[in-house]
Design goal:
alpha+beta, four-stranded antiparallel β-sheet, 2 helices, 12 strands, about 35% strand
Length: about 260
Amino acid sequence: AIAKVNVVYPKMDAPTNEIVLPGNTQAFTDAPIFARTNGYVKSWHVDIGTRVKKGQLLAEIETPEVDQQLQQARADLQTAQANLRQSEITADRWEALWKTNSVSKQETDVAVSAFHAMKATVDSNTSNVRRLEELKGFQKIYAPFDGVITARNTDIGALINSGASTPTQELFHLAAINILRVFVAVPQLYAQAVRPGATAFLTLDEFPGKTFSGTIARNSNSIDPASRTLLVEVDVDNRSGTLLPGAYVSVHLKLPQSVSSV
């Protein structure tokens, strides 16, 4: 029997000026907010969706244990300072007596060494007071950058544990959405056409007929061996707040020259 085959002749297609690839948006800066001291939540001042400025107060923590430790450390510092003054007077007195050969060199050295040891004790207590004062300063939690609160995971009276050995609870989640990062995987065939500084356009299904302009900020400079694609980041101005982090978008990348296909 004679085999029968169907013959298809390839034809040149219209030149391609751009490629459309899927991408997802992410906040330019995204950070969880934790506490740096132990205590209880006294009050919180922001909730999800609140736009905050850098340095704005987010919450306050009541720290009775740290307050007691600070009071004790200050009392210890005052005691050490009093002992330092006494040891300084004693050391000066023994040195004056040694010059007149009224006391031995050994006794004078002991008094001077006691003075220097007490001075080191004062320095140590001063550092301890400063450390506790910094911990007390962590009672107030401030926003590290401008952004929007995307999560609040605490409430008034909640126990706060900042220990490194125990799992800590995230109090807030802050995202900077004035500029969004859009990550897109570009096929290896078009990798050389994607250059930082070039313009890209975004389209979303919820905004038919509308495009959002972005700029190619950087790429990974490495082809992923699993997918044979180049990871590219497109930065989009989102000061209007129209776009949301985590959204699915279509990224339109302009090619430097028309690419023919069949």
